[in-house]
Target: Diacylglycerol kinase
Amino acid sequence: MPLVAFVNSASGGGLGGTLMACLRTHLGRSHVIDLHSCRPGRMPEDVLIKYARDPMVRILACGGDGTCGWILSSLDKVWSTVLCEGGEGSSRRHLHLSKYRDHLPLAIMPLGTGNDLSRQFGWGGTYRSHMKGRGIISSVERSRVTHLDTWRCIIMPLEKLDEEEKQLIPRILAESHATLQMEEDDTLVDSTVRQSPLRQSTAQMLRSLLEDDIPYEDSKSSRRKNTTTGSEPLRQIFDGSFCNYFSLGFDAAMAYCFHHEREKHPEKFSSSLKNKIVYVQKTPYALRAPKLRKRVKVLVNNNEGQLVELKVPKNCRAILVMNIQSYAAGHHLTSKGSPDDALVEVIFVSNIFQAVSTAALSPIMPFLLFKVAAQTNNVCLRTRCPLHCQVDGEPWLQGDGVICIKFHSRKAILEKVIGKMSCGCMGTGMEDDVIN
Model:
């Protein structure tokens, strides 16, 4: 069974480089790609496009959740290219992927800190010596094909960001610009965005939220004249996708501090254990996190597909939008949801102590699990002051603006199987998968 491995040689405190050499011994140099050395013409999508039509090829991502997200985003580009070559992508806004829904399934070797996606599908939370070389290859061959939803995250700032501010936005959220006028094809005019165009309903919703005339009283933008009118032709947009979770509040503040500490002192982050120690040291930032009720407006789609406001609890200090059940290094906060149900779970958290106690005790005390405020396919947040956010562990400081989270696509992923062989067959599901 053909296997293509992508290794982040910078992951695992230098372990990635050793694993890359070992895998090349078993798979051959051309089948093991170093993500740390990617360049134009040698990006993951440039490699994977050659195997897109082969239903037997499998992918191994060696790294953390960020590495997995990179490969999954690359697959979006692969399928868009394949469908355009077939004459399907140029005239259709919805890319139906049922023909390729089980092609290029992804397995994971965990080399990151949290490794939540790896935990979700049975690949473990940390690297073990038995995973090296032939061991992981055999596990991939035995694994079972299942599916994972990915979600589109669209950010529209109220005020245009300057070059310095743009550098603080995660690279997985690419910048583009879109006009706020509608064309006859019912889509938002958008010539540079890498994702598919925004639908009219999404564009109108973003505009109406930006024109919200009840800003937070301390917001700098509340003292400015609202410029979000129909006369403004161009809007700055940051657009990308994620597969694990989005959060806003105290946990994102901790991730933000951790991220900047790692950039400033990379020598402190030579192992997963050291990473977790530094993370714990950032707890005081969580304790100082503000209440969100007057700072964020939350809207979700109800069962009828209507966008309705979700009341933020008085003491809420974090808002989580969960696609998978594994959160913050393998903890489960709720029993609801599935990675492939086209729904996310919205959870409100009061403080870090509530989150820690739930994570620690819920396996033996299920009643401590968080109540899910909503299960939905569309979440919109209107932020009225600077707040910390993150998607799959990639943090940034969000100013006044709108964040929209909507279903994006469904990817094939491999679930580890213990003690039995996979037949290597692809699934036979008939439903269409769509890139929105």
